[in-house]
Amino acid sequence: MQTYSNTALQNILSNFIDDAKKYHFSPITNGLINTTFLVSDTNNYPTYILQRVNSDVFPDTAAIMQNITNALNVLQQDRYAKIEFLKSKENKKYVSTLDGDWRVLTYLNSSVVYNTTTNPNIAFEAGKIISIFHSLLEKEDTTKYKDIIPNFHNLEVRKKQFLKALKTTSVEQKTIAKKAIAFTNTLFPILNPLENIKIPIRVCHNDTKLNNILFSKIDNKALCLIDLDTIMKGHFFYDFGDALRTIVNTAPEDEKDLDKITFNKELCIAFINGLNTSSRFLTEVEVKTLPLGSVFMPFIHGLRALTDYLNGNKYYKVSYKNQNLDRAISLFTFAEKAAKELDFMTNLIYYGNPST
Length: 356
Ligand code: GN1
Ligand code: MG
Hints:
Layout: H1 6-13, E1 24-28, E2 35-40, E3 46-53, H2 61-75, E4 95-97, E5 100-106, E6 111-112, H3 120-137, H4 155-168, H5 171-176, H6 178-190, E7 202-204, E8 213-216, E9 222-225, E10 232-234, H7 236-247, H8 265-275, H9 284-310, H10 323-339, H11 342-351
Antiparallel strand pairs: 1-2, 2-3, 3-5, 4-5, 6-8, 7-10, 8-9
Helix pairs in contact: 3-7, 3-8, 4-9, 6-9, 6-10, 7-9, 9-10, 9-11
This protein binds 2-acetamido-2-deoxy-1-O-phosphono-alpha-D-glucopyranose and magnesium ion.
């Protein structure tokens, strides 16, 4: 990862505020795409987030900022905490420098994120804030939203990318990835019922993993969703499945000890109870897709990680060579566990009555 001096970052910040020299920066490393810093003042008080957009993944920053602005305008409600992007001195929501586009947003005081949880209250709150996000955006005109990454969660397209990588990768890489490749053969067929399904298109967050939800440090209430770059059209089961895979599994998404990968029913019940607090907007066909959504999302993420491994780790930041492969096997293992719980989830979603 490229490193930046304090002065370089202060210079970028000075495009947005006058007293940039009084701030210092610490990297936030749980995102795999963008480069992010927490900006704190001389009293060590966190005040802003400064972020460089990864232009390989997100070539059109203006389109991203337009989608985010559209959504944030609607999300300004009492039950949803306000996040604001600072305008630059030239009245823009980002500035372009030689090495990319940068933006600054307000840091929410006393907030915290969790990478994983074992706390049902957190699971409940996560479900609740996702259903608030969707109920507020329910009436949005989806045609206003640009496709930031076309076919982001399109399994057919991701399958083609995977098959292409399989053809072009080395024999050695393919041998190392044998187990992960075998997994795909069992999981693809399970997802057939979601193919060509007619289902509403909504404005989705498209990256609702647990650590993209801000919680209050004081009472653990969910405040809002962060990491808004993939706000674009999608299906509700994307946001459902992405959250579920990171809440119901108490291990991180690149966990190597597969025995630690869980489908925790208590957390699942709490998450779905949280969702039910504002989920009246969901149509019958959407409700029907939810159980399989919890297999679809970990699987498609695993497939993308495996494809990136076979391609030589070009897309995701990795901290060691086989991290994408570990992530793929871990995600496939969770997808397989979720596939065994389809009846449990169906009962829970329809009757609120878990058959434990
Ligand atoms: C990427 O950068 P981050 O962590 O917010 C990815 C998501 C994956 C996630 C894996 C634009 O998000 O789709 O779920 O890594 N975002 C993009 O944790 O590819
Ligand atoms: Mg993201």
